[in-house]
Amino acid sequence: MTLDFSTPAHYLVALLPELVLSLWGMVVLLAGVWKKEEEGRPSADDLGTLSLVGLLLAAGANGWLYTAGSTGGHGMVTVDEFRLFANWIFLVAAFLSISISFTYVFRQRLQAAETYSLMLFAVVGMMLMGGSHNLILIFLALELMSVAVYALAAINRRDRRSAEAGLKYFLLGAFSSGFFLYGIALIYGATGTVDVLQIQRVVIQGEAVAGLLFGGIALLAVGFAFKVAAVPFHMWTPDVYEGAPTPVTAFMATGVKAAAFVAFLRVFLVAFDAVYETWYSVFWWLAAVTMVAANLMALVQSNVKRMLAYSSIAHGGYLLVALVAANETASAALLFYLLVYALMNIGAFAVVVSVARQGEERLQIEDYAGLGWQKPALGVFLTVFLLSLAGFPGTGGFMGKIFLLQGAVDSELWVLAVVLVMATLISYWYYLRVAWYMWMKEAPEAEAHAGVMTSMPMKVALVTAVGLVLFLGLFPSVGLGVAERSVAALFEAAGTMGRVIP
Amino acid sequence: MHGFLAALGYEGWILHALLWLPLVGMLSVLLAPSSRAKYLALGWSLLILVLSLGLWWAFDPATGNFQMYSSRPWIRPWGVNYAVAVDGISLFMVLLTTFTTVVAILGSFNYIKKYEKAFYALMLLMETGVIGVFVAVDLFLFYVFWEITLVPMYFVIGVWGGERRIYSAVKFFLFTAFGSLLMLVALLYLYFQARAATGVASFAYADLMQVTLSLREQMWLFAAFCLAFAIKVPVFPFHTWLPDAHVEAPTPGSVILAAVLLKMGTYGFLRFLLPFFPEAAQHPTVVTLMMILGIIGIVYTAWVAAVQPDAKKLVAYTSVAHMGFVVLGIFAMTVNGLQGGLVVMISHGISTGALFLLLGMLYERRHTRLIEDFGGIGRVTPWLATAFLITALTSIGLPGTSGFIGEFLSLVGTFEARPVMGIIAASGVIFAAYYMLPMVQKVFFNALEKKENREMDDLSPREIAILGPMVALMIWIGFHPTPFLSRMEASVVTVLERVQGVRANLPAPFGALGGVHGDGGEVVGYGDPQDAELSAVAEPQLSENHVPRGDEE
Do B147 and A392 touch (CB under 8 A)? Predict the structure, then answer.
């Protein structure tokens, strides 16, 4: 069917994946209440499975939307392939994060229904954020996502660090939301609209009030930079990522970041395309500083979770390069990289969850000594994820990085490309360090890793993630093609073209 | 033999088989019980060696073009192809790789005691990676294989190495990765320029070679590529990772590292650096700089080697010296120089590989590598001493061994280009005797003073099976290098024609040794200079399914 938004029903169809997930989140909540009355096995696993089913249904709805054509951007939500591709990323991130939560939720006695339904609600927020071209809706979606994630970060009530993480994230997140909202207000003042396409038209026609517009752009950029954890707006990240329950950290580092980047890209490439010259150099520095600083700080981390937090900031830096390049290739690269990044990062966190046994016990890098020889499968998986994070050939991370570099090269950002590869070189050190602890150091005792076990959903998640990371690394054509097509839709609808920096 | 191979359709599948059979072998090693790992690995590597030997006959020495070319689209949106081929340069590198892998695996039987499955699996993975580097004629594919070789070597050094193994493994990894990442940016620049010029995305060797670059662009790209290769070779100031890696690596790791991994760097010089950036490569300053670095490598490391108490470290330094001769020969840019460089690459692969194996054998017997711990053991282990002496003499380039042919040709090439450089470099041959012979004397010929040294076993049949073919090869190349030289000549001439842009005014190849081709002109017809560039790669001999650009199939 073709969606022309002539009747309200079309809106419902266009929002099908979001609606499915919202309803399903409530179902999970209710199921949690009912289940507690029963006796016997813990209900946490059932709730997890139920949530996975909800994600599969949403995925089905998302796939079905490909068959629905859309005739235009009158609605607040677009039905373009860009949004649908972004939805895949969020769904994959949520699916894997929930899969690796099963044992964790059980052992840490978290409230399963609340945990899983909050994750589903957060995904709804992400989807709306990536799919909307109305600044107000983007803000609401951002809040929906953030509030859910604030609660998730603090979901482990018995853990002091979890509470600290939640509070920190909430305070700083609220602060940045203020910037974001103020930015929207200024832009409304400058252009008289909050619709991204309308803003684009006003800006192109030169009717925007320059001072207000640039102030608004700056404040919006701050809001986004906070969410994608770009240096120097990253201060909250290491503490929050370290304190939050590990599966939630995995979810934050991939899903939240992906949603922020997708909206970031849509707003800046569509609405502010015409004033590209004013903002690109700011992002240039933001990207360069983020890449270099985050990688340098990751070098000295001895806590694996914290190291992965800095690594995720660094990856945010690589992705910012795509924003600076602001052409079709770079945008497609951003989508492709976000997908690969979700797979490899959650994969790495999955191993961290396994190694940490009861929950948050063994997180130091020394705890990984000899892991590879005692648990070869886990060792090989983590090695693959680390090589992929490092951008090594044969893995999806390599293809993603090459794709990003191509985007940078298309806009002739040679210096930024060199900064990117040198930052990658720095990152080799800390990724390799985990590998050498795993394979080259002796375990302190013969049974050091005996308590490391993986539940069935965790195994499925690990195998899926490894399989996809290798598949995208060896046969990336399909993924690249889909990413490029998705972006073409965005650029076509917006009428913006790739450009070369003057 | 030709007919037999043709009947098998050998040319059609051999390169793919060489590339992927090691991976099949790797899987079989991983799935089999640990006790059978080494025999399986040996079996697979022997099979691959036997298959690869057919290349010797199937290869057509008359042409300098790529042979056995085949190409399939791999990543269509970027114009990346899975394209493989061999020419007279890569032919020997492939053979050296298949041969060395067998030797290294056979040499690890007693040395590798823990995690055998993983070790042999990594050796086979490495074989795939190295062969991939040598046969890839698509630069993206080349880069992928180039990087992949790092991973198995990192683990081989880091897991099975000596005391400071982790430090050495990481140093090895980071040094090499530093160069290759910059090369990646340069490669993308080339790709970008090629696409801008033709509108077609392609990483194919032939396409990237046709990019027109200004001298300034060439200089920068040359620097990026050169750095990557120079670190790998290693050329003088970038060599510090090598002694560490060699000393800490287990014997088979050292053998592979010396025999084939270092050759990836010099191969890169020949295959990419010179043909891609001919003006930069011929710039007098660049040539002088590279030659001086080569000479420093030869002379300086010879002195450093002479004072090493650790025999393995001594041999590691000699590697740098030998590779100095290769760099010298390559930048002489004469037929003799290039051929000499190639022969040194082969000879060094065999002789240094053998030296590391012999030191490994001594280490297995005495658990030391310090020269002072030995003495007079030639009387106890005469066969081991014989093999060691022949190998050491090959290493220092005694006439009648492969080392002599290589060093002599590259020195002749250097004389033709830069006489003064040639004279200084020739002194390196004397220094080679100065570091190698005293070591041999102290280990094998001085008084037999230490009690532990009296009870050493001589070579076992397995060890004879390893060393025999290596010694035979050293002497064969030393006395009858013609079959080798004739197979490389046409390709070397092709490279030179590309570099010099005009029909090279070639001196007769070294008559007394080579003598098969009167002059370079007999080697396949090249039309005018413009055509020569194309014919170098764009028209491989095999007509089947040739797709010069990725998008046409």
Answer: yes
- Residue A24 pairs in a beta bridge with none
Among chain B residues, the shortest Cα distance to A430 is held by B170
Chains A and B form CB pairs within 8 A to the count of: 76
A468: Cα within 13 Å, side-chain hemisphere? 22
CA distances from A305 to A225, A241, A388, A438, B158 (A): 22, 7, 17, 15, 24
For chain B, what percent of residues have pLDDT higher than 70? 91
Whole-number Å distance between alpha carbons of A328 and A483: 10
Give the mean pLDDT of B229-253: 90
Please report, for chain A, the start and end positions of each structural domain, with discontinuous segments joined by +.
8-494
DSSP alpha helix (H) spans, A359-395: 371-374, 376-389
Tens-place pLDDT, residues A202-246: 888 888 888 899 999 999 999 999 999 998 888 899 999 999 999
> Do the chains contact at A394 and B144, CB–CB below 8 Å?
yes
CB distance B192–A480 less than 8 Å?
no
CA distance B523 to chain A (A): 38
Interface contact B115, partner A, CB < 8 A? yes
User: CA-CA distance, A392 to B144, in Å (whole number)?
Assistant: 8
Q: Which residue in B77, B148, B155 is closest to A477 by CB distance?
A: B77
- For chain A, say whether B165 makes contact (Cβ under 8 Å): yes
- Which residues, 6+ apart, have CB-to-CB distance to A50 below 8 Å? A27, A28, A31, A116
- Indicate yes or no: CB of A481 within 8 angstroms of CB of B148: no
Inter-chain CB proximity B188 and A484 less than 8 Å: no
Residues from chain B that touch A397, judged by Cβ atoms under 8 A, are none
> DSSP assignment of A323-338, as one string?
HHH-SHHHHHHHHHHH
pLDDT tens-digit readout, A416-446? 999 999 999 999 999 999 998 998 888 887 7
Confidence at residue A495, expressed as pLDDT on a 0 to 100 scale: 57
pLDDT above 90: residue B497: no
Task: Identify the three-state secondary structure at position A132.
Answer: strand
B166 has a chain A CB within 8 A of its CB? yes
Strand B67-75 relative to strand B80-86: parallel, antiparallel, unpaired? antiparallel
Torsion of Cα atoms, A175 then A177 then A183 then A184, to 10° = -150
- Neighbour count for residue A275 (Cβ, 10 Å): 18
- For the cut 70, the answer to whether the pLDDT of residue B552 exceeds it is no
Q: Which residue of A has its CA nearest to B150?
A: A392
Task: Report the share of chain A in percent with pLDDT over 70.
Answer: 95
Q: How many CA atoms lie within 13 A of A72 on its CB side?
A: 5
Q: What is the pLDDT of residue B155?
A: 92
Partner residue facing A476 (CB), from B75, B170, B191? B75
Rounded CA separation B378/B368 (Å): 17
| Structure confidence at residue B541 (pLDDT) | 41
Q: Residues A306-322: what's their mean pLDDT?
A: 94
For the entire predicted model, the pTM comes to 0.90
Q: Where are the domains of chain B?
A: 283-515
Find, among A231, A326, A345, A336, the residue nearest to A288 by Cα: A231
Mutate which: A412, A421, A480, A486, vs B, most B CBs within 10 A: A421
Restricting to B residues 450-489, those with a Cβ less than 8 Å away from any Cβ of A are none
Answer whether B138's CB lies under 8 Å from B72's CB.
Answer: no
> Does the pLDDT value for residue B520 go beyond 60?
no
Cross-strand pairs, A2: A69
- For residue A432, the chain B residue with the least C-alpha distance is B170
Give which of A439, A470, A475, A487 to mutate to test B binding, by max B Cβ within 10 Å.
A439
Query: Sign of the C-alpha dihedral, residues B506, B422, B90, B171?
Result: negative
Q: What is the CA radius of gyration of chain B?
A: 22
